[in-house]
Model the fold of this input.
Amino acid sequence: MLSDHYNIEFNKKVTVSGSLYRKGDFLLCHDDASDDRAVAFILYLTEEPWLKTWGGTLDLFQTIDSQVTHGKKSIIPTFNSLVCFKVDPNVTYHQVSEVTSNVERLTVNGWFHSDMFKHEPKLYAEPKVSLCKHIKFYSIGGHSYLTEFISHKFFYTDWISQKQQEFVANNMLAAGDFFRSCTMHVLIEELENKTLWKMQGPPYKRKYDVASITTLPTTLRTLVHFLTSLEWFNYFEAITGLNKADIVSSSFEIQRWLPGYYTLLYYTSDLDDEPIDMIDVFVYINMNNVQSNSRASAIVYSTQSPSEIQDDAFQMQLVHNHIYLMHRKSHSSWFIKYLKKHVKNKFYLFQMSYSLSGQSLLRLKNG
Ligand SMILES: O=C(O)CCC(=O)C(=O)O
Ligand SMILES: [Fe+2]
Done:
């Protein structure tokens, strides 16, 4: 019957498994395309009438002008109903939304396979629009934003040289109380403005909000100005021991993270590119101050490909008003795991990345 409906000749292989989703369980956006999977099926077996507010919906993402969007159609996992779809790479993107009730979501699901299908792992090339080449180190002049924004302890010479040693030894450093409390106050007020934010995609890669740099309110705008200024890069030199002339490009983002947001690792096509090392800078603002040990927000660094990602990948737990500097080796990447809805965590992240020239790496290696 299915074979006729989809006009597909199945081979002898059928994969079947039982799946149980408990509170907090979810399955992020994917298209099922792997090997010879042809038609996916899911039989829903939870006996209670399922309420939409419990989460656990099967969400089908919409594709507009061949771009996968965050728009979706949700199917409630109704008892004894069967859902089937033909596996179409880059099209049949779907997810199971987080189960938020204590009722267990039970399914039998799998795929009919066909020799007519042979899905290969996909490469994804990130459009490199956010990188601004040719950094100009312009001076703000006269006014010292550095001391206006940043806590005074960051300027003690001993403290700076201690931090530089830490950075050189560990390839990372973290320091608390970055913004002065008066600055933090104003920043939070501006960040809380709901009209600032635009959701980022595609959903099979990421879901978080970014503030448009061109329409920022006053203090945020001044901050961005400052974080791209000569003053900042001079400070950056002092604290990392790197030479600002070795920075060949930079990117900057102000991010908002809400429950249900995530980034995913993906296969990139830039593996053939010249290796570049990066310095990642994060400033983390979290008013809920969710305990860092709840793993509510951590940045995961990995050199693995998406299918090989290990549980022991380096996780950086984030603490409110800390700045983090990370030396990211070439061919490694970072991501932030799905923020569970029932943890109700929300945070802001200032994120900068600087790519380094080959010479600076030599200098780093030679100490
Ligand atoms: O349980 C569902 O509704 C979908 C499951 C799914 O997409 C999968 O296992 O690949
Ligand atoms: Fe699936």
Q: What stands out?
A: The pocket of 2-oxoglutaric acid (ligand 1) is lined by residues 19, 27, 32, 42, 58, 94, 96, 107, 109 (CB under 6 Å). The helical segments are 2-6, 145-149, 157-170, 181-191, 218-227, 230-240, 358-365. The first helix runs from residue 2 to 6. Residues 360 and 366 are 10 Å apart (CA to CA).
